């Protein structure tokens, strides 16, 4: 009987600790997603400013050069824009962003910023597009800086809270 309780306590503590570690890895994955998105926006800027590519071709090229959920998002937008079904760019941007949002691990604020970026990107001249991209890149850099600054403490906190929560539950249950 005592072995059964002891085994239960160990399993509860281990599973709660694993949840804490999982939450810490989500924070790291979120930061990596923002860094990938920043790299893709830099590539998009190059395609628009230097290659003078139409927006759907630029999105397709950037999507093919990258990987992950953001690359899938860019490729889907390029495909829809290439079909020329009369939809506005901002509408396609928003719908595809909403479809891919969960996989991209964006916070509500980041989702809103990215949606607003798409609203201003599609209809402006090249100079205004360049300034819009620069503004969004600045916002991304701030978010990434915050994530990097707090990553170590957040990782440690999530892991410790998971383990301590597991120990607390084990004590309460036994």
Count of all domains: 1
**Helix coverage percent of residues?**
over 70%
Shape: elongated
- List the total number of helices: 6
| Relative strand content | under 5%
Largest sheet: none
Low-confidence parts lasting 5 or more residues at pLDDT below 50? Answer: none
Query: If you average the pLDDT, what whole number results?
Result: 88
| Rg estimate, integer Å | 22 Å
- Number of E strands: 0
Q: Measure the end-to-end span.
A: 11 Å
N to C succession of SSEs = HHHHHH
Oligomer: single chain
Structural class: mainly alpha
Q: What would you say this structure looks like, in words?
A:
By secondary structure, the chain is an all-alpha fold. The protein has one domain. The chain is 87% helix and 0% strand. The protein is built from 6 helices and no strands. The protein has helices spanning 2-49, 55-65, 69-83, 89-104, 108-121, 126-173. α3 packs antiparallel against α4. The longest helix is centred in the N-terminal third of the chain and has 48 residues, at 2-49. The mean pLDDT is 88.
Distinctive features:
174 residues, mainly alpha, elongated
Summarize the structure.
This protein is mainly alpha-helical and 174 residues long.
Q: Layout of SSEs?
A:
Elements: H1 2-49, H2 55-65, H3 69-83, H4 89-104, H5 108-121, H6 126-173
Helix pairs in contact: 1-2, 1-6, 2-3, 3-4, 4-5, 5-6
